[in-house]
Amino acid sequence: MAIIEFGGGSGAVDDDAHETRAGVFIHDDMDPRGAIVHVFGEATFADAAALESMMAGAVRIGRPLVVDMRECTYMDAATIGVIVRAAKDLRDLLRLVMPHEGQAYRMLDVTGLTRVLHIFETIDAAMAPLVEAAPRLRVV
User: Which end of the chain, N or C, is less packed with Cβ atoms under 10 Å?
Assistant: First the structure.
């Protein structure tokens, strides 16, 4: 079953690149290995509550939650906050998929979160059993 939810962003379309700037989130629960939330476009403050709600609704006890951000063109601090809260709750069950040369990865790297989150290049790699647990996020 797939649930489609459109973020609260502007929905504007860039005619040159033909990209939607507003966040679009799709929950794919068809993979038996875990739930997948796909993030498309810009994930911003306007969309953070919708993304957090979708991620919370996708969680199944003992199954990984994979957030596929390969098509995410931008994310702000509110989206990072959603990821951090999910990581605190889900620990090793939260897996992020994003290219290591992309903007989303750079944002997480600058904040030091790449050292404590499970980040993979592909969904298949994210769904595989973990070789090593991530360090625990500390509240400061």
Answer: C
